[in-house]
Design goal:
alpha+beta; 4-stranded antiparallel sheet; single chain; 9 helices
């Protein structure tokens, strides 16, 4: 069953097109990531789904219902913002209870739902505190708890971890993944952080300039990028992109200062490109000492503890390789 379906959504401000007839679907219970750089349109799409921004064209279906013209309160959604959006004068309990109270939910149900959500998020001891007395991570848990108590058809997350430090972001990613497994809800999550996307997402939509560049599972996005934008945006360190020419026999790509023989499995598809100028992508972890045809000298080694990042030069070409610290690490100048 489809939890969310977006059909031909378009949005422009004046002559500037923000969303260009975007369509996608998210199955019920799936964790979907909208990923892309700042200004690509991912947050606008999320706000259109929520009803906070009106689209110029297209329709939104949540749980099979057309909600395109409904107000946000009538869409059966819960949204978690980057800024937490907590009421500073209210206790944690009242912040979490607020969306239920405004719907005249019986007090007994409010108590039950708030305490159940607080238990899931490990914030039971914080219920009498106010937001100013909480850390950033605790405030984010409260914001998530406020969404949980409503048991909506759709959860919307707008870069919820971007205000946290790196260590706390890592722990919160684990908590969000565990939480999704426990509640089984449909989640649409906006981020520009590829680590969040790859670790949390069951499905990723990569956006650029208001258009979906690729959608698929994390391993497909990483291993089989649809174009140069996706290949360059996903992966850290960034993928090496080389310009070259396919040989007339279609078995080798000639790049400046090096030649890359093509795997036999790739040759049938590349035969039609014989003699053409192409772009070749090589992931940094694919460059291993003595494992390929690339002859390069080491200009710099970055020690990251578990990994080493090698900056290489092969003639006029610069490359980046990623090696595990446990392996043999070439020294600078070799």
């Amino acid at each position: 069953m489809t939890g969310l379906r977006v059909e031909e959504i378009s949005k422009a401000y004046g002559r500037k097109k923000i969303i260009d007839y975007v369509s996608f679907a998210v199955e019920q219970g799936r964790f979907c990531i909208l990923l892309g750089p700042s200004g690509c349109g991912k947050t606008t799409i999320l706000r259109i789904i929520a009803g906070l921004v009106r689209q110029d064209a297209g329709r939104i279906f949540i749980g099979g219902d057309d909600v395109s013209g409904r107000e946000p309160r009538d869409r059966d959604i819960a949204m978690v913002f980057q800024s937490y959006a907590l009421y500073p004068h209210m206790s944690v309990y009242k912040n979490m209870a607020f969306p239920l109270a405004v719907r005249n939910t019986p007090a007994g149900q409010i108590e039950e739902r708030v305490r159940r959500a607080a238990g899931m998020l490990d914030i039971e001891e914080l219920l009498e505190r106010r937001p100013a007395q909480l850390s950033g991570g605790q405030r984010q848990r409260v914001a998530i708890g406020r969404a949980l108590v409503r048991s909506p058809s759709l959860f919307l997350f707008d870069e919820p971890l971007s205000n946290l430090d790196a260590q706390l972001r890592g722990s919160m990613r684990v908590e969000l993944a565990n939480l999704h497994r426990r509640i089984g809800g449909t989640i649409v999550y906006v981020t520009h952080d590829q680590t969040e996307a790859m670790t949390l997402g069951q499905k990723i939509l990569v956006f650029d300039r208001g258009v979906i560049q690729q959608e698929g599972a994390p391993e497909d996005i990483y291993s089989r990028p649809a174009n140069l934008f996706v290949a360059s945006f996903i992966g850290s360190p960034q993928i090496n992109i080389l310009e070259g020419r396919v040989s007339d026999r279609g078995d080798t790509v000639h790049c400046p200062a090096l030649q890359l023989p093509l795997d036999a499995r790739d040759r049938p598809g590349l035969a039609r490109l014989a003699g053409a100028v192409v772009s070749i992508g090589i992931r940094p972890e694919a460059l291993q000492p003595g494992a390929g045809p690339v002859q390069a000298s080491v200009e710099l080694v970055e020690n990251l503890g578990a990994d080493h990042i090698l900056h290489l030069r092969s003639g006029a070409v610069r490359l980046v390789a990623k090696l595990p610290a446990s392996g043999e690490i070439p020294q600078q100048g070799q």
